[in-house]
Predict the 3D structure of the following.
Amino acid sequence: MRGFVIGLLLGLLILPASAWWWLRYGHPPVAVTDPRLPMEKQIVSVPLHARIDREMPAHAAMDANPANLLLGAEVYRQQCAGCHGLYGRPSAFGAHMFPQSPQLWAPHGHGVVGVSDDPPGETYWKVKNGIRLSGMPSYKDILNETQMWQVSVLLANADKQLPADVLAVLQQPLVAVATPGADSAAPSRPTVIPVQPPIPVQPLPSE
Ligand code: HEC
């Protein structure tokens, strides 16, 4: 009996001790460029999709009318394009994150563009709640309900012919690069981010 109890206690200790040893000395993946753990993708995506299936709204709260698409494109440009890319312009760093930021204007077979094959309610859930341990933020306290739906409805229609003004918002690069000798015709929107005046530096208190 005594041997059994000691064995049991040792067994109970070995598991957490080896887990700690592996975390401390076993080189678990921590860098973006490290290889994935076995089944990492499944471990993360099975519970995420189960939760989204339970909670996502079945119907979009609005139509994909031109006004909603345009406002959705403005939201997208300001909040999402840095990671998820613009129309024909992938994000510079989206592919160098772990997990990668999917490029939401990239066609990827069977006529699908970005997440156009997901119902708007699924995208709305992701925008509202974010995706833990990925770069995907929760916009619950950043955008209002209307804006979260507008951007979700836009992405659900990414495979459709979008109105010209919507495309114009999505095609303009985030920061214009000045090309020497380029035509200086005024762009349709301000492309240069105004530089904030530097904060005045307080002199250090003399001792
Ligand atoms: C800081 C970078 C970042 C920003 C900003 C960001 N996302 Fe994401 N997003 C991600 C990453 C990374 C993923 C991948 C998460 C994963 O694979 O689990 C993701 C995933 C998604 C997905 C799921 C894609 C798929 O293939 O299923 C959608 C939809 C999405 N984001 C929409 C948006 C929208 C809309 C915005 C703006 C309101 C936004 N994201 C802002 C990084 C970002």
Observations:
- The pocket of heme C is lined by residues 79-80, 82-84, 97, 99, 101-102, 115, 123, 126-127, 131, 134-137, 139, 151, 155 (CB under 6 Å).
- The CA atoms of residues 198 and 204 lie 17 Å apart.
- DSSP finds seven helices and no strands in the chain.
- The radius of gyration is 24 Å.
